[in-house]
Design goal:
Layout lengths: L1 H13 L5 H8 L4 H29 L6 H16 L3 H14 L4 H14 L2 H14 L4 H13 L3 H14 L4 H13 L3 H14 L6 H9 L4
Length: 220
């Protein structure tokens, strides 16, 4: 009974209802059939109140946000991710997308969230859609590679990493991914080519020696 009371109280307070005194008198005291009848009567009222509340929320919310406001919402969602409030962050990202279906950062961070939660199918769906919006975004393509790799689809991941490194040829991060993927799939030729590119753009990369050894061991 106390739990039902708390639920009703929260809904009424959130909706700005003024029935709390009546609720205090009517919910905590009745027992048996009297309480059950009260719950049945109140259920319909609560539903109506909830609908009015939702309608009021829609009226008070802006129909659109500026780009800066959407960026702020994404930043807030990122903070929730850092606090491991994943469900709240997900809702915030989706809220941004609902206002601007082409707001790329929200999709990308949402996909990263799914990767972090190991919801790989959702991550793939998110990044695949985003790749249609931004087909030349190396970060998105690399994220698709990470997703496929996590799913055990190493050949597909290799193709994504290769494309990402082609779109951003001087980015050592994507070259790292590409080399590791080439080694994983046993593609010695591509691994050596990518390693040469890595030496050129980032000669102090501490992974170079390790990559050389791994490439030499391919096929042995």
């Amino acid at each position: 009974r106390r739990k039902k009371y708390d639920i009703m109280k929260g809904r009424l307070e959130r909706a700005g209802g003024k029935q709390m005194d009546h609720l205090n008198k009517s919910v905590l005291k009745p027992v048996g059939m009297g309480f059950q009848n009260f719950v049945r009567r109140v259920a319909g009222k609560l539903t109506a109140v909830e609908r009015k509340y939702q309608a009021k929320q829609k009226e008070t919310q802006p129909s659109s946000y500026t780009h800066d406001e959407l960026e702020k919402m994404v930043t807030e969602a990122n903070g929730l991710v850092d606090e491991e409030e994943y469900d709240k962050a997900e809702k915030k990202y989706i809220e941004v997308i609902s206002y601007d279906p082409k707001f790329v950062p929200a999709y990308e961070y949402l996909g990263r969230l799914y990767l972090r939660r190991k919801d790989y199918d959702l991550a793939r769906e998110t990044f695949s859609f985003l790749a249609k919006l931004s087909p030349k975004d190396a970060s998105v393509i690399a994220s698709l590679g990470e997703t496929e790799e996590a799913l055990g689809n190493f050949e597909t991941a290799f193709e994504h990493y290769k494309k990402a490194s082609s779109l951003s040829p001087k980015n050592p991060k994507y070259l790292d991914f590409f080399i590791e993927s080439a080694i994983e799939t046993g593609n010695k030729y591509e691994a050596n080519l990518a390693l040469d590119r890595l030496r050129a753009v980032n000669p102090d990369n501490q992974k170079i020696d390790d990559f050389e050894e791994q490439i030499q061991n391919i096929g042995q």
